[in-house]
Amino acid sequence: MTRHPRSTRPESGAAPAFRATPADDPAGPRELVIRDGADREIGKIEFRLCRACGTGHVASVTVAPSWQGQGLAREALHRILPDDLALAWTTSRQTGQGRAFFAAATEETGIDFPAARPGCAHLRDEG
Q1: Cα(12)–Cα(125) distance, rounded to whole angstroms?
Q2: pLDDT of 123 strictly over 60
Q3: Alpha carbon distances (Å) from 59 to 67, 86, 124
Q4: What is the C-alpha to C-alpha distance for residues 29 and 47, in angstroms, rounded to an integer?
Q5: 0.90 cut: is pTM over it?
Q6: Cβ neighbour number for residue 37 with a 10 Å cutoff
Q7: Between the CA of residue 87 and those of 11, 46, 111, what are the distances in Å?
Q8: Which single residue of 11, 86, 115, 117 has CA 20 to 30 Å from 102?
Q9: Phi then psi for 29, rounded to 5 degrees?
Q10: CA distance to 32, 34, 81, per residue, from 42 (Å)
């Protein structure tokens, strides 16, 4: 079967790669992008961390439909959780699918991910 070159369907043997972008300032927006073997974006988690206040905020988690159900969002979430300190996390408004995802993440990690405004002024600052 021939695949269209712009297809985002999983291809056998092509392990996704996770690439983080740094924030411009310590509490600034960051993202962890998931790319397929052809270097196409297939998912992303957008987040902010404030180490000074001990808070984190997940703004969005997306995975292309054809790649869902493979644990990519779960892996991305684990990759953004710092090993060196426990943060109080919040998330943006959650869809039904998002609520199920974050409930599973809470059960797995022991970290609460409530849908709420960011927990500190540094993360609420959009600038």
Answers
A1: 42
A2: yes
A3: 20, 18, 11
A4: 6
A5: no
A6: 14
A7: 36, 16, 8
A8: 11
A9: -60, 140
A10: 11, 6, 20
Band (5; pLDDT cuts 50, 70, 90): very low
Apex 110 CA angle, 96 and 78, nearest 5 = 75
| Token code pair at residue 37 | 């073997």
Residue reference for tokens 């052809």: 38
- Beta-carbon-side half-sphere exposure of residue 57 (alpha carbons within 13 Å): 21
- Residue range 98-117, pLDDT digits in tens: 999 999 999 999 999 999 98
How far apart CA 42 and CA 6 sit, in angstroms, is 11
What SS3 state is found at 124? Answer: helix
**56, 88 contact by CB (below 8 A):** yes
pLDDT score for 93? 85
Residue 50 burial class via C-beta count within 10 angstroms: exposed 0-12, middle 13-18, buried 19 and up = buried
Torsional sign, CA 37, 41, 42, 44? positive
Write down the pLDDT at residue 9: 54
The residues that bridge with 89 in the sheet, in sequence order, are 56
